[in-house]
Amino acid sequence: MSIRTDSREGMPFVQADIALIERVLENLLDNALRHTPEGGMVTVSLSSGDLKMTVRVADSGRGISQKDLPYIFDRFYRGEDNQSETSEGAGLGLAIAKRILEIHGSRIEVVSALGAGTTFTFDLPLSGH
Q1: Count of C-beta atoms within a 10 Å radius of residue 128
Q2: I need a surface site. Which of 8, 23, 33, 74 has the fewest CB within 10 A?
């Protein structure tokens, strides 16, 4: 598996609690790594504009079914593919990430398709704005 970062030098600072945003990234990366098969790709990309920084965490994993998508940010929710006793996680990571971003005045969006991977996107305000 490969992890790639995509950002340019000289990115502006954001207005955020770094420890909480680290937690968001840890949760998103943990999910991406857990659900991306050997030989897959996880990409973290940053872009700035319009007084905000956009963060994307994308993977080439198995994706999330359309019937599970509306519920993935609910506490303790685990999709049908993650119900086995051997699967890791309590179903809290995405709920925590969503709440942290709400505290920062942001929201998290997801685009996913089975067999095609998943992309999570959120924005943070640039420092001084």
Answers
A1: 8
A2: 8
Task: State both tokens at 93.
Answer: 């990571």
Dig out the tokens for 96 from the structure: 């925590």
* β-strand partners of 2: 41
Query: Tens digits of per-residue pLDDT, 10-23?
Result: 888 999 999 999 99
DSSP string, 9-69: TTPPPB-S-HHHHHHHHHHHHHHHHHHS-TT-EEEEEEEEETTEEEEEEEE-SS---TTTG
Dihedral sign of CA atoms 86, 91, 96, 101 in order: positive
- What pTM was computed for the model? 0.87
d(CA 106, CA 72): 17
The per-residue pLDDT for 4 is 81
- DSSP lists the bridge partners of residue 49 as 52
Structural domains of the chain ordered from first start = 2-8+17-124 (3.30.565.10)
Helix, coil or strand: residue 70: helix
